[in-house]
Amino acid sequence: MLLDERKARILAAVVEDFISTGEPVGSRTIARKYGLGVSPATIRNEMADLEEMGYLEQPHTSAGRIPSELGYRYYVDYLMEPQEPTDEEKELIRAHIKHKAKELATVIQRTGQILAELTHCATLATVPRGSDVFRHLQLIPFGRGKAMVLVVLASGEVVHQFISVPGGITAYDLETITEVLNAKLRGVSVADIKATLLREIRRELARYRRFLDMVLELLREATETKGDRIFRGGLPQILFQPEFHNVERLRTLLGLLEQEDYLCDLLSPQSSPSEGVCIRIGSEVNRTGKFAFSLVSVRYRLPYDLEGVLAVLGPTRMPYARIAGLLSWVANSLNEELKQIFG
Q: Which spans of this chain does the record mark as coiled coil (predicted)?
């Protein structure tokens, strides 16, 4: 149900004042600061109605009100206008994203870092594993009957594993296999390794078929999609938020950040709209916990029709309009930079 104009303006005033000050908001404050053209008594009556409707709550120790989860939800859905970053913020963002490092993981980590600094919240970013590109592979002799398979991906991730080497395969053979695999796989994304390419490799290295199949199977296991990689940041910054001076609340947040499977589901691109910013509040983030948090997220694009997610996680009392505008601008800038890096 949509609120009438006066109730909506009062709700917006309460939400924005509480976000700004962290203090419960009274009718006199609304009348003095927000120029609604009605008396404190009228505002007080409207706030009582909003409380009865579930949009506001009254802490036991205060005569003022604070937004409820429903109040925040209404504000975000119907009243909020995203704020574009300032020119200074845009310059900081560009400087972090347009860094000399061209590895995907580094670019994403630096993006999360500047978001944490600008929002004083925790940041999360996903990198789909299928977006990784092979940079280098090495088969290294390692004692009798063993070799180490070393794979370096463009994201900076290094995968290594030992493998048994059948009798008759020499160090020269390992070099030959390494050269062919590098020639065929370098610059190819994990998602783009097709059966035709594997058949081509097997045909060229037919004499090593048994050992080659072991190497290719190891590569598949090492790089297969097991859920997106998640980068976390902003933990020092979030300690500036007064809500997290409460040790139990902070412990709850840290516990959430350790739940890899839960975060993968929460940050899945499929759980966010294809365009624009997604805002989840309270029970939409932490369904079972005592403490409420909010998550603001946006998709970013990668080659090969892959997508990742950037997100800001913090208290429900977060500046939604500012963070939504910030994330939207960051995602657009990141899309441009990744297009230049990866084509």
A: none
